[in-house]
Please model this.
Amino acid sequence: MRGLGIRKLKSYLMISLITTVSVLALIPIFHLITSVTLKGVEVISRNFPNIFFDVRPIPGSKEVGGIGPYIVGTLIITSLSIPITLTISVLASLYSSEALSRFERSIGKYTRLFTHMLIEFPTIIIGLTVYGLLTSINNLFNINIPRFSLLAGTLALIIIVTPYVYSQVEDALKSIPSHVREAVYSLGVTRVKAAYILLRYIKPALYASITIGVFRTISETAALLFTAFGSDHYPILDSQILFRPIGTLTLAIYNFALSPYENWIDLSWVAAFTLLVMSTTLFVISKVLSRGR
Amino acid sequence: MSRDPIIIINDLRVRIGGKEILKGVNLKVPKNCVFTIMGPSGSGKSTLLRSINRILDLYDDVEVSGDVVVDGVSVYDPKTDPIYVRRLVGMVFQIPNPLPHLTIYENVALGPKINRLVRSRRELDELVRWALEKAYLWDEVKDRLHVPAVKLSGGQQQRLCIARALAMRPKVILMDEPTSNLDPVATSKIEELIIELKNYLTVVLVTHNPFQASRVSDYVAFMYDGTILEVGSVDEIFTKPKNKYTEMYVTGRMG
Ligand SMILES: Nc1ncnc2c1ncn2[C@@H]1O[C@H](COP(=O)(O)OP(=O)(O)OP(=O)(O)O)[C@@H](O)[C@H]1O
Ligand SMILES: [Mg+2]
Model:
């Protein structure tokens, strides 16, 4: 009986320890969310709803201004890069998880290796690489693709986010129990159709991967410094849009937070809060979608 | 074995990851019968089944030599489409594995629909009903065809998997220990069903249970360490086995 008492005490201590550590780990996240929300809402209330449409105030002015161009920029660059990112990563992960021949399996293996390497790369290097790549292309063909442009930013985002989504989707496909995969193939379906059935099987994980991809895209900063570059004007929607710099929420946070102006710093809180709201909305949508059949 | 064989296996050798699993299997399976493969764990029974419908293709690092002919189709001929083979040869697995994200109806309809075996919704409905009836499941599910398949009991799920295979109108069904995860009542239902199935197709059954083998089979093959040691009618194998390993196995002294 005494042994049982000690065991109970031990398990009690262990559980309290784990609880404490988990709470400790949550504190920074909680702090981050509350401070961004409190500060963000406070600034927004000073110029609502125009703060979402106005542009930033000129240096030295005391106006609140707004983050309109950056919201539009983030939406544009995300909606350009995400479809390409998703297409590449879903197809590539299907290719490596549903490989049937030795050749296909080895391609899959190298793809995995390569993407895992890419994930480890600091994103600023990928930004620089895109910059360098465009320089070489320009020199080689004697053309002039602007290196500070929406095009370059989109390219960088695709290179950064594709490996993430790829490895998420691939993990999900690989975790399908072999008896389920065998059941699907034993129906005499082509691989394309098997892929379609298997993607439906991993639907919740698929939506989660897409969500992570969009999170990653809207939150990237470093790689955009040398590519999208940033702009404080509304993007002009014409045929040249791809070749001009574009602002994003993350670039705005970065630039404003480092600025000497009080009202610009305030705007960086608003931009951060907007990103937070976007992410949360996205998260909820993906949860709802993956629950429905 | 007077009847025409539907499956002919000639010197089939399978290596997985460099290890020889099937070491020259020769077998003829007659049409419209229940052909049972027995043998100790690890002797290669599942591998043999999976090589008949080329599900083995899904595994990594598999080498196959020798040949398998099903209904006149040379399964490993490079010109043969494995997809065609899998339509000819259905499969039922050890774990009842209906697709959990699909309904009862969808599980049965999936194969015919995705392979365009039917031309209209009505034809599909009829086929689904036919398959469910043949699998002795229709009466139990006809009022809830559109609930998720995972709501069924284990035995019902396994019969659903049989219906799913039947809906493809295969000539052969491979069953790998289909009752090993089921209770005795569900098991006897499936045994009854297996005997019924041979009226219109050929069943190749793997079982660990000698009693089940003696109840449902017409022929029994005894497999040991990657080869077939003995094949015969169910009476021959159970009453006068020629091989001493076979005898030990059917009398329960090995397993
Ligand atoms: N995918 C695989 N990779 C490596 N080895 C495998 C694989 N599948 C089967 N084997 C090996 O092949 C041998 C035969 O396996 P198999 O599953 O065919 O045996 P079995 O007769 O069906 O056994 P059981 O009665 O336990 O189901 C075993 O030694 C097993 O380890
Ligand atoms: Mg087995």
Notes: The longest strand of chain B covers residues 5-16. Residues B 16-17, 21, 39, 41-47, 59 surround adenosine-5'-triphosphate (ligand 1) (CB under 6 Å). Residues 5-97+169-250 of chain B form a domain with the Rossmann fold fold (CATH 3.40.50.300).
